[in-house]
Amino acid sequence: PVRPGCPVTPSHPSPRRGRPCERVMAASKPVEATGGGGGGGGGTGLSRWQLALVLGAPILLGAGALYLLLAWRSKKGRKVCQGRARLDIRKRFSPQRMMEPWNRLHGEASPLDRAQAAKNKGNKYFKAGKYEQAIQCYTEAISLCPPEKNLDLSTFYQNRAAAYEQLQKWTEVAQDCTKAVELNPKYVKALFRRAKAHEKLDNKKECLEDVTAVCILEAFQNQQSMLLADKVLKLLGKEKAKEKYKNREPLMPSPQFIKSYFSSFTDDIISQPLLKGEKSDEDKDKEGEASEVKENSGYLRAKQYMEEENYDKIISESTKEIEAKGKYMAEALLLRATFYLLIGNANAAKPDLDQVISMEDANVKLRANALIKRGSMYMQQQQPVLSTQDFNMAADIDPQNADVYHHRGQLKILLDQIEEAVEDFDECIRLRPDSALAQAQKCFALYRQAYTGNSPLSVQAAMKGFEDVIKKFPKCAEGYALYAQALTDQQQFGKADEMYDKCIDLEPDNATTYVHKGLLQLQWKQDLDKGLELISKAIEIDNKCDFAYETMGTIEVQRGNLDKAIEMFNKAINLAKSEMEMAHLYSLCDAAYAQTEVAKKYGLKPPTL
């Protein structure tokens, strides 16, 4: 479940995106009675007035019975007894009630006392590891306990569930915990034990519901329940994402996202503008280049559509080039694979990338680019070994390719191999001194290393590095954005806000920057309205920005608007670009849904901002 008070930083592999109700008082746990015996004689510990009271009770009760009997015989008494105030003599003066003082005096226990004694005996067996005998004692306690003693009875069921748990009888554990919760709906110990039993029985939905209730009752302070909630949410997310991603409809991302993606490459042949001799027939008259048009191919048409931002036609035109085995077959394979990746169809992209990589006679830049993209795909699929192998192979076949080191540096950051990441960024900068993006990301890597290493001097040096980068490359929006994140970490909120403003000035159509600026307002000024206004602006700019929907959903959870949060998460799920992202979003959505179910079932309100 999403906890309030924590920074709202949803998960995403990019450093710019970062990585994911206040208190509900838990109901008091049922107090387990310790049992207690009376006793007779001088050793009972009863004071004189207590003894007098006990001994005198039968006499007083006898006098009261006699009074009522006389009253009944009188006419007036009969009317009184027949009225609404008539006492039930049989109930009030039952043999059991009249013998209670006598039983207490002579050590004869009540049913509840005997039940507590059986429970205490069961506890001794439990501590000795004799769980079968403990179960027998707890069963006896349950049978002896008066049915109106809900809290005591719930404790006996919960204790028996604990013994069943030691024997790994998970069905019995769940059943007894259910009875305990029916008797005491906010019994945290029983809810958590049932959650663990449901986990063992692979009842993930029921497990999540129980552990969510525990988290809310304990105000999200218990590490064990939080870990179990996180575990089951991830399992549910993976299951749902696997099924959804397999059957999802391909969706082309926004033009801004596509342009941003290609801008991260400098040696990518397929993203370069068309040469004059490659212009299609449609453009030759306008530009007076009829004599330079040599041919018309599917790949060249795809490139032209790319320049026109008509991205939906690129895959089909590339396919025509591939089927015709034309001159630009390798380029067409790489271009088609790239757009398969952009629409989230990694299964279709991989064969094309494999084929380009295996073409030893193809341009080495094409093969290296294919390796970079396949390596990035493997990283999204959480296969870091295969990813590292592809990047290393790209460096071997094209050691002068700056893109290899830039993207491998990003991989190393994700793997928390900061020193190696810095080395790769340095090599990228050596090959391309004008690479503002690599220099900004190197600063971010150094900052992370200093921040996690708790080195104030190194942090100061990294912050100065950011200042140098934005001074040297004042048109690099990424430099301002990464610097703003570091400033936010250092709680220099005003300056961070200025950096985001400069980033927006350079890239007014970058929805992600608006989301980060909105989050800053929440952290800095607790200005919920301003934060939501900026995130809404991001959605207005790019209605395919899954990060904006995800962040909006996270905020709505913390506001207590769970239905709205679920709506936002579902929109983000439909826009997710990888199965891993989708699994993360399903986890957030399931957490919100579980809180709504718990609220209805137990009358609990999740903490809010």
UniProtKB/TrEMBL annotation:
<feature type="region of interest" description="Disordered">
    <location>
        <begin position="1"/>
        <end position="22"/>
    </location>
</feature>
<keyword id="KW-0488">Methylation</keyword>
<keyword id="KW-0677">Repeat</keyword>
<feature type="repeat" description="TPR">
    <location>
        <begin position="368"/>
        <end position="401"/>
    </location>
</feature>
<feature type="repeat" description="TPR">
    <location>
        <begin position="477"/>
        <end position="510"/>
    </location>
</feature>
<keyword id="KW-0496">Mitochondrion</keyword>
<dbReference type="GO" id="GO:0045039">
    <property type="term" value="P:protein insertion into mitochondrial inner membrane"/>
</dbReference>
<feature type="repeat" description="TPR">
    <location>
        <begin position="115"/>
        <end position="148"/>
    </location>
</feature>
<keyword id="KW-1133">Transmembrane helix</keyword>
<dbReference type="Pfam" id="PF00515">
    <property type="entry name" value="TPR_1"/>
</dbReference>
<dbReference type="Pfam" id="PF13181">
    <property type="entry name" value="TPR_8"/>
</dbReference>
<comment type="similarity">
    <text>Belongs to the Tom70 family.</text>
</comment>
<dbReference type="GO" id="GO:0008320">
    <property type="term" value="F:protein transmembrane transporter activity"/>
</dbReference>
<feature type="transmembrane region" description="Helical">
    <location>
        <begin position="49"/>
        <end position="70"/>
    </location>
</feature>
<dbReference type="GO" id="GO:0005741">
    <property type="term" value="C:mitochondrial outer membrane"/>
</dbReference>
<keyword id="KW-0472">Membrane</keyword>
<keyword id="KW-0802">TPR repeat</keyword>
<feature type="repeat" description="TPR">
    <location>
        <begin position="402"/>
        <end position="435"/>
    </location>
</feature>
<dbReference type="GO" id="GO:0030150">
    <property type="term" value="P:protein import into mitochondrial matrix"/>
</dbReference>
<feature type="repeat" description="TPR">
    <location>
        <begin position="546"/>
        <end position="579"/>
    </location>
</feature>
<keyword id="KW-0812">Transmembrane</keyword>
<keyword id="KW-1000">Mitochondrion outer membrane</keyword>
<keyword id="KW-0007">Acetylation</keyword>
<keyword id="KW-0832">Ubl conjugation</keyword>
<dbReference type="InterPro" id="IPR011990">
    <property type="entry name" value="TPR-like_helical_dom_sf"/>
</dbReference>
<keyword id="KW-0597">Phosphoprotein</keyword>
<dbReference type="InterPro" id="IPR019734">
    <property type="entry name" value="TPR_rpt"/>
</dbReference>
<dbReference type="GO" id="GO:0030943">
    <property type="term" value="F:mitochondrion targeting sequence binding"/>
</dbReference>
<protein>
    <recommendedName>
        <fullName>Mitochondrial import receptor subunit TOM70</fullName>
    </recommendedName>
</protein>
<keyword id="KW-1017">Isopeptide bond</keyword>
